[in-house]
Amino acid sequence: MKSESIYRVMVFTFLTAFIFGGYLLENVGIKYVSEGGNPLVKIHISTYILMLTVAIFTLRRGINVPLTSLKELRASWLISFLCILLVIFYGLIRFGTSGMAYLVDTMVAPLLGLYLLSQLSITHKNKLLTLLAYLLFINSAIAILEFILGSTLISVEFSSFSHFRSTALLTHPLNNALITAALAPLLMSYTRIPYLIYFTVVTLALFAFGGRAATGIFMLGVFILIAPKVPAFMAAGVRVSKMRFAVIQALAFFASIFTILVITLTPIGARILSKLHIDGSAQARFDVFIILEQLSLREWFLGASQTLLENIAFYIQIDVIENYIIGWIVSFGIICTVFLFLSCYKLPLKIALGKNRNSAKIALIVFILVSLTNNALTTKTPALLFLISAMYLVVSRRNGK
Predict the structure, then answer these.
(1) pLDDT per residue as tens digits for the range 256-308
(2) CA 291 to chain centre
(3) Which residues contact 77 (CB under 8 A, 6 or more apart)?
(4) Separation CA 11–CA 1 (nearest Å)
(5) What does 168-211 look like in DSSP terms, one character per residue?
(6) Burial of residue 181 (number of CB atoms within 10 Å: 0-12, 13-18, 19+)
(7) pLDDT tens for residues 88-141?
(8) Could you tell me how far CA 277 lies from the centroid of its own chain?
(9) How far, in Å, are 117, 275, 333, 355, 381 from residue 99 at the CA level?
(10) Is residue 342 a contact partner of residue 83, using CB atoms and an 8 Å limit?
(11) What is residue 277's predicted lDDT score, i.e. its pLDDT?
């Protein structure tokens, strides 16, 4: 397969992963996230596309040639893939096929995506990077419109939220918040949209998603990213034409007016104020640690018993564990949790830990911190697919390879 063919596959993969979220699939009758239904439809179409393409590509080129394209990431990719295979094997023994689609969609798909991205030319990598940047901006704009109108684009009802939250295209509001907060510092410079407008829209969208921690961590990440450039700007300034400077001033003025109007005339202002205190939702993040006290030594290593899994709500008053690491320990045990952590973060850490990769480092730090404040990674999500892909594409662009 040529670079052009793989590029088209990846465009289709990103579009399907972005647009065909769990709520949309449920609305058209596909039981993707609800109980029951054919086990085959529990795996997302984007993952099927990746698996089929990788299989065809590997059969044509063999395994050694494609792996060499990963360069310094080859060892990390192999270790990550081995780790997730071991956890899937253990999960099949313990739970059967139940829950395995979660591991495939959330953790296998990013590895397959990176495998294919490494085969692309720098031109196609740049195009995909721009595509992701615009998709994230469009998703944020949809979230703001949903919040202003008080209605979601895709029909969905929440029983656990006291306030309206936007769902946009990426299913659950907290999943949207995780992806948006982590990817925006990486992607906001890869569109023709001015930084200030991109930043403003993303920040308002995070409030619309109801991601309190995500908003704060995102702002902190952006501040850390731009802080080193401030002294140079203050000392030397920036060379720019009078026309461009005038356009920048106008855009800044209109962006400020737009932000003020949105905050004062829509429910987003009230939402911002409502996020400045610890409520029941935030308290659930702390209560979840109680479940660890119920684990025996054997359950710490092998995962909680079926009885405990069925009675989680008895201990923490809700049936959802609001911390994915604790969720992994309860479901799979501490050993498999280590494997899962390696499969998720060994590759992005390898990508980020290099010279001149500050934006990748910030994106990874934001992703880890935000993911610890919500349960987005305990369910099927393309978050890691987008994160690892964006990090790799940004680094590849800067390295020119």
Answers:
(1) 676 666 656 556 555 555 554 444 455 555 566 677 777 888 888 888 887 77
(2) 26
(3) 67, 70, 111, 114, 115, 347
(4) 15
(5) TTSSSHHHHHHHHHHHHHHHTTSSSS-HHHHHHHHHHHHHHHT-
(6) buried
(7) 999 998 888 777 899 999 999 999 999 999 999 999 999 999 999 999 999 999
(8) 25
(9) 27, 33, 15, 39, 13
(10) yes
(11) 46
Within a 10 A sphere around the Cβ of 298, how many other Cβ atoms? 11
CB atoms near residue 174 (< 10 Å): 26
Q: How many CB atoms lie under 10 A from the CB of residue 335?
A: 16
User: Model pTM?
Assistant: 0.87
- Residue 238, judged by CB atoms within 10 A of its CB (0-12, 13-18, 19+), counts as exposed
d(CA 101, CA 95): 12
Smallest CA-to-CA distance from 190 within 146, 136, 264 is with 136
| Three-state DSSP class for residue 163 | coil
**Residue 239 burial by CB count (10 A; 0-12/13-18/19+): exposed, middle or buried?**
exposed
| Spatial separation of the C-alpha atoms in residues 385 and 240, rounded to whole Å | 37
Question: Identity (one letter) of the amino acid at 100?
Answer: M
Residues 6+ apart with CB under 8 A from 217: 181, 366, 369, 370, 373
DSSP state letter for 2? -
- Going from the C-alpha of 301 to that of each of 105, 293, 330, 367, the distances in angstroms are 25, 14, 9, 27
What is the identity of the amino acid at 222?
V
